[in-house]
Write the C-alpha cells for this entry.
Amino acid sequence: MDNLKGKTFVVTGATGRQGSAIVHHLIQGGAQVKGLTRSPQSKKAKRIAAFGAELVTGDMNDLNRLKTVFQGASGVYSVQNPYTSSFAAEVRQGKNVADAARATGIAHIVQGSAGFGEKTGIPSWDSKLEIKEYMQSLGLPLTVLRPTAFMELISDPGFYPMASTFHHMPKLMGADKKVTWLAIDDLGAIAAKVFNDPQKYIGQDIKLASDLQTVNEVRELYQEVLGRKAPHFPMPEFMFRLFTGDDLIIMWKYLRTANYDWLTTDATLAILPEAQTVRTWLAKQKG
Ligand SMILES: NC(=O)c1ccc[n+]([C@@H]2O[C@H](COP(=O)([O-])OP(=O)(O)OC[C@H]3O[C@@H](n4cnc5c(N)ncnc54)[C@H](OP(=O)(O)O)[C@@H]3O)[C@@H](O)[C@H]2O)c1
C-alpha cells in the first residue's frame, strides 16, 4: 500500500486481539509500527515484535507518555478494553489518546469502536461514543470503525464461547436474530486500508460486518464445516454475570428488539472484498 510506506503508525492495544491484527496488516502494507504495551517482555509483545513492530512501553493512563510516543507518527489506532479495566478507565484512556493526538498533530486517528453509533444504554458501546464525541470536539481527523461481533466469539476461550455465544447470546437476543460478524484479522486489513487512504476515510463512521448469520445458522455451519457440534454449556445467568459483568447481558437483550436491518455487508466488502464469511472463517479453524 503506497501511502503507508515510509510512515510510522502508533497502535494502542497492540498486543491484543484487535491491535495485533492491525500491527500485522500495517507492517505487511509497508508501514513502520510502534506497538504500545505496558509489558514489552510479555509473550504477546514478543509476537508483535516478531512481525516487525517496535515495542514502546506506555500506559494509556499516562498522557505525557502518550505525547512522547506519538511524536512523529502519521497515524494512531485507538482501542481500549473496558472489560479488563473499567468503563470509566476506557473513557479516560480514550480521551488521553485524543489529547495526545491533538497535542502532537496526528494526521489521522482511527478509533476501534463497536455498536451502531447511537446511544443505547449498553456500557461498552456508549463509552466508545463518548470517546468519539470527545475526539470530534477536539477537531481530530477521525475515522471510526465499528465491528459488533467478532467471529472469534465462536472459538476464542477468552470469550467463553460455550456459555456465551452458544448459550446466553441466543437465549437473550434470540437464536434466529442475525448477528453482524467480522473476523478480527479482517478488521486489521480494513484499518490498514483506511490508514492508506486518509483523504477518503477521514470523517467516516463505518459499521462493519462481513457476514450476517443467526446463532442457529452458525451452529449448523459449525457442524458442517468442523464436523462436530458447537460447544454448549448451560451456565445460569447469575454465574455468567459473575464472569463477564452486565455488559453482554444488556447488549444481547438490546439486540433482541433492536432493528438493524439496514446493516448490510456492503460497506465492509467495498473496503475489503475478500473479507471472510463465517463459513470461510470456520474452515480456517480446522485442525
Ligand atoms: N468481542 C467482540 O466481539 C467485540 C466487538 C467489537 C468491539 N469490541 C471491543 O474490543 C475492545 C477490546 O479489544 P481487544 O479484544 O483487542 O482487547 P485485548 O485483546 O484485551 O487487548 C487490549 C490490549 O490493550 C492493552 N492495554 C490494556 N490496558 C492498557 C493501558 N492502561 N495502557 C496501555 N495499554 C493497555 C493490553 O496490552 P498490554 O497488556 O501489552 O499493555 C492489551 O493487550 C473492547 O473495547 C470491546 O468493547 C469487542
